[in-house]
Amino acid sequence: xxVESQKGTQHDQESVSIRADDLAAMVExxxxxxxxxxxxxxxxxxxxxxxxxxxxxxxxxAKEWADSLCExxxxxxxxxxxxxxxxxxxxxxxxxxxxxxxxxxxxxNPGIAKPNTGIHPNANVDSSASIDPSASIGPGCIxxxxxxxxxxxxxxxxxxxxxSAKIGSDxxxxxxxxxxxxxxIGERGLVFANCVIGSDGFGFLTATQDxxxxxxxxxxxxxxxxxxxxxxxxxxxxxxxxxxxxGHRTKIDNQVHIAHNCIIGNDVLxxxxxxxxxxxxxxxxxxxxxxxILNDQATVGKDVKVAGGTxxxxxxxxxxxxxxxxxxxxxxxxxxxxxxxxLAKFCRRVDKSLKKLDDNYQxx
Length: 364
What we know:
alpha/beta; Udp-n-acetylmuramoylalanyl-d-glutamate--2,6- Diaminopimelate Ligase, Chain: A, domain 1; UDP N-Acetylglucosamine Acyltransferase, domain 1; 3 domains
């Protein structure tokens, strides 16, 4: 069911409106309350205004509902909502409120501005490059020799595509993105501003008394799978030889660094400021929190959760949840943290006990 717009544009977020019962039908939810409420915006439960929709997915949110100014809420089935005013408000019960919110956001998403189809007059495209007629090449973009730009690709502005690089269908590259020579991105990719894919890996031989630092040539490539999203200002280094590889549907946050020869599986989540050392490996469906560091050649298995700020020095097995410096099972790490909180007090007690023993020894 379409979301109606007062200005005639379905995706104008500021003007969309929908009745509560129509919204319930759209998300396949169960309505409890007033079906005639008109909803015009989304809001946090404690920041609502009349006409706003929120979501409830925890007991703490449920307790705030009675005092919220929001007029409707998406509720994950199974939560009791105290103080619900069914005459003036509406609850829409769904299997998963987070998933329902995604569906609504997709319906009202205004989209991303993009250049017109074709090659902008201020773009510089080598004559040997292959550009699908449906692609959009914006102003200031550079497409080098033998590069391949497939159907529906968008280069917004000032994007650099290196020699023999390949961009898969319907991939969207924001301003300032750099794709190095021979690197490839799969279909439906999304790369945000100022990412650099295919820079040299940090490969050097340390200096000795007989010679200076020596640079190791980085002649490999980067291969990025389908449906991968890469946040702003992230960097992915090319391999020394072989390939640095990012699996399908992996999502990479802002300011993430992936070093040369890393292998990352499918459906991996890498949160902001995470750093992967050279030749490290991450299995499918693993999630790394913010500012995680993987040592060179570290191996993290499948279905792993690594808490923010953790440093992984060697291996994390499939299915583990780890925390700390160095990484350790979360129960051990939490016990250590609890012990550290009492460490100063414990040391003072030990000092007092030792002093008492010394005094008793000297007087005996």
